[in-house]
Amino acid sequence: MDAKILDGKKTARDMREEMRLEVISLKEKHNLIPGLAVVLVGENPASVSYVTGKRKACEKIGIYSREENHPETFPEEKLLTLIKELNNDPAIHGILVQLPLPKHIDDKKVLYEINPDKDVDGFHPFNVGKMMIGEDTFLPCTPHGIQQLLVRNEISIESKHVVIVGRSNIVGKPLAMMLCQKLKNANATVTVCHTRTKDIGHFTRQADIVVAAAGRPNTVTADMVSEGVVVVDVGVNRIEDNTREKGYRLVGDADFENVSKKASAITPVPGGVGPMTITMLLHNTIKSARLSRAV
Questions:
Q1: pLDDT tens for residues 176-192?
Q2: pLDDT single digits (tens) 70-101
Q3: What domains can be seen in the chain, in order of their start residue?
């Protein structure tokens, strides 16, 4: 059986084209341009790359992008003051603070300072609470991207058994909450496995959909899944590979080569979940802009 490749790049392109037209409409009908501020402290190479990708994505669909780049030594107090300024700036509808932050800065203190109405990452406890009880809010970008990738590839979630391997606050836990809601594109039975789960394979073999989000390569192997399973691989791991120019290659948390022989559909790494994450950030920024004017 040849597994269908769930092409996140294509799905993201389709969604971004829809958003580009929506942004044009907002500008023409309401003189409203969605604005996103991205705050980067330090020069972590991965973070710099992510911020660059977000800026380019904003430019392509017409979102106003403001970058706040500051040195590693930027004081916590100044960062909190900057967040307050962005909270009060009517041109900014979304605020994203790129993690990780330097050790002298308290992540929670900074994230909690963001106005929940501009929390386009969906990490503020206020929005997490609304998501938990099924109210409309800004959904975390990676879980929301996974949901959209499945829906737009006509993979039903309702009444399916979804097994999530990983319990992070960024992916595992919020995705579990989203997919078990009594809402459209949800209504799944969800099991969450983690490092203390005895025999993860016992659960993943029962799954209709497996989400690998453990942060470790080859966590999900072919003997751990059933025939016809759908596999969503969230992991991005660097593996040494001297045959590559960069000296490494990227792999996910699932053994793609062997798992894909049993799966009915699977995401590649890279090019699966990653492009969807930034796409849902753009979605949340546009949503925030609409809410700011009630349009």
A1: 999 999 999 999 999 99
A2: 999 999 999 999 999 999 999 999 999 999 99
A3: 32-116 (3.40.50.10860), 141-273 (3.40.50.720)
Q: Which two tokens stand for residue 91?
A: 């041109």
- Written as six digits, the tokens of 81 are 């003051």
Identify the CA nearest to 89 among candidates 37, 33, 28: 37
CA distances 90 to 76, 160, 216, Å, are 24, 42, 41
Catalytic residue numbers read: 54, 98, 121
Specify whether the backbone of 134 is left (phi greater than 0), alpha (psi in -120 to 50) or beta. Answer: left
Q: How many residues does the chain have?
A: 295
DSSP characters over 27-57: HHHH----EEEEEEES--HHHHHHHHHHHHH
pLDDT digits (tens, 9 = 90+) for 13-34: 999 999 999 999 999 999 999 9
HEC readout, 184-224: CCCCCEEEEECCCCCCHHHHHCCCCEEEECCCCCCCECHHH
Q: What is the mean pLDDT of the chain?
A: 96
DSSP β-bridge partners for residue 35: 64
Whole-number Å distance between alpha carbons of 176 and 167: 9
DSSP state of 242: T
Q: How far apart are CA 249 and CA 230, in angstroms?
A: 24
Token digits of residue 110: 């900074």
